[in-house]
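[User]
Um, tokens okay?
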Amino acid sequence: MSPETGTTSDSRAPRETWPALMRGWRRRCPSCGTGPMLRGYLKVRDTCPVCREPLHHHRADDGPAYLTILIVGHLMAPLLLLVFETWRPEPLTLFTIFAVGCLALTLYLLPRFKGAIVAFQWARYMHGFGETRASS
């Protein structure tokens, strides 16, 4: 990538990052936006069943888990303090409500962050994305 122009030095077409991120957040293929990216809860498909875009290059690793912990922690901790200071519920009630809330928020965010990270890598040609398409 050329630092002064922000363009790639090779012949690859630039990919829009924000639309790809939104497709990934919806757990859809970052290329076509219609095919499902995930098989099951967190397993990324090797290729998109609609447009045949290879997705096996991703290296999401622990990124989705770190982002999920960051967001859930920063949302739930202040909320826990606010609820405790305002209403003083019984400890078991407070624990039950916030345990269910943390679990639900975690289960909601984790696959969406995984899709967004894979889509970001796809949009930026990271980790081998685009090599098979560029050569064919």
User: Anything to note?
Assistant: Confidence is low (pLDDT under 50) at residues 1-8. The radius of gyration is 19 Å.
